[in-house]
Structure formats: structure tokens, C-alpha cells
Amino acid sequence: MKNNLTKVLWLAIGLLVLVIVFLSIYYEIGPFKKADNYYAVALTSGDLYFGKLSWWPSLVLSDVWFIQRDLAATSTPSLSLDKLTNVFWGPEDKIKLNRENVLMITKLRPDSQVIQTIKSQAANVPSAR
Questions:
Q1: pLDDT in tens, 80-96
Q2: The pTM is what?
Q3: Across-strand partners of 51?
Q4: CA dihedral 18, 22, 25, 26 (to 10 degrees)
């Protein structure tokens, strides 16, 4: 009788843990919360992306911006920040990152020039939704 009670108790605890994890994922709370912070992500390809990073279940960058190089400039190539959805091939506003290709991830300060540029340009970029 005591053995059956122990089994039922462990089953109830396991079920409760599963419900808590499921609700955390569904409502994006706790460790599953989507970050409102911007991150810079450098890849082994040399690309540098900026955006909001989700860590679980995989690395996903959303609200993605990247550095655009204007190679047509005569003396020095000019750099600008551009929204990923503006690329001619029409990608969605998310990138699923392969952890093996990530060289560096760093959180950007709210006063960084990149974030200030994103905020100023975000009003001028049409929504991809």
C-alpha cells in the first residue's frame, strides 16, 4: 500500500513539473521568455547580425538587422545598418542559428549606436507581418 502511494506521489510530481514547463513555454515566462534585449551575433562566415535572441530550444534571432557594405563607393566602402526583410530575396524576420557557426554573442547596451540606429530606422521600415 505504501509502495503504491509513493508511485502515485512521484507520478503527480512528474505531471506537475511537465505542466509547469509546458505553461512556461506557452506563455513565454521564466527561462523561456523571449528577450527584449538586442544582441550582436558574429558567425564564422564573417557576417554580423543584430537582433533579439531566443535561446531555447534553439538559437533564433528575430527583428534582424545586419551591416550592409556599399562597395560601389569610390575610396572607402560605406557601411549602413539594414533590416533583413529588405533583402531582395524576401526572407522572414528570423534566423535560426547553427551553434557551431557562432563565434560570438554579446548583449548590446541600450545606449549603443546600433540600438539607437535601429530605433530611428524602425519607424521607417514596413512590418514584415
A1: 788 888 877 777 888 89
A2: 0.64
A3: 39
A4: -170
